């Protein structure tokens, strides 16, 4: 069974920063099984983030035996692997940094072999059904290489909003508040692309500069949690590398 979210060849868009979107990313049978086996109880049993509205089950737990279903464990294993990293690299090309011997220096969150330069993660995520944006315009960790978001809304979800929004900056971001989620405030720029909160839809971007401002639109009439999967790779501190430079304050 092929589990990659990159089975369809996407069109790479390079402005305002490199990203692509894939609709119906997973084969329907795979998606439906993952949907049936969604680990809601395990997720809601974790300590919430973002002032109590966001629950994340990360690879440090998902890859343990018996925590999630067999398919979800295999899904997390693949999307934290060197093979998946190379799939992403094949799409972004030279925009992504070259990492020699990626097979021997990448490991999932919580499973570092000791001195691994690349950390990867595949997280199932649930946001409380709030009527405000769960993520205002921000940039990600400068050590992050790429980030992917797969939407998995409940089949009976009738809400609107919760979309991934791509911004085009008019002002260069040189400083962010790390404790404030690296929000960029009035430097967000205009929204140039909106990716609907739609089943089996993937959006992924290469975190190659401070231009990678993104946000999530506020939901309306939400009674169900917002479900998604985060797929990321980043430089571990031992690598002493980052994708860009920005001054990170703690306020």
Q: Which radius of gyration do the C-alpha atoms yield?
A: 17 Å
Q: What percent of the residues sit in helical stretches (DSSP H or I)?
A: 10-25%
Order of helix and strand elements from N to C terminus = EHHEHHHHEEEEEEEEEEE
Which structural class do you get from the secondary structure elements?
A: alpha+beta
Largest sheet: 7 strands, mixed
Number of strands: 13
| Content of β-strand | 25-35%
> What kind of oligomer do you see?
single chain
Shape: globular
Number of helices: 6
> What is the rounded distance between the termini?
47 Å
- Integer average pLDDT: 93
- The low-confidence parts are none
Topology:
Layout: E1 19-22, H1 28-36, H2 40-44, E2 54-57, H3 59-62, H4 70-78, H5 82-92, H6 102-105, E3 106-108, E4 118-127, E5 135-138, E6 144-151, E7 164-168, E8 175-177, E9 190-195, E10 201-206, E11 214-216, E12 226-235, E13 247-249
Parallel strand pairs: 3-4, 8-13
Antiparallel strand pairs: 1-10, 2-4, 4-12, 5-11, 6-10, 6-12, 7-9, 7-11
Protein model, in words:
This protein has 251 residues and is an alpha+beta fold. It contains six helices and 13 strands. The strands form three sheets. Strands 1, 2, 3, 4, 6, 10 and 12 form a seven-stranded mixed beta sheet that branches. Strands 5-11-7-9 form a four-stranded antiparallel beta sheet, with no helix packed on it. The chain has a two-stranded parallel sheet with strand order 8-13. It is globular, with a radius of gyration of 17 Å. The relative contact order is 0.21.
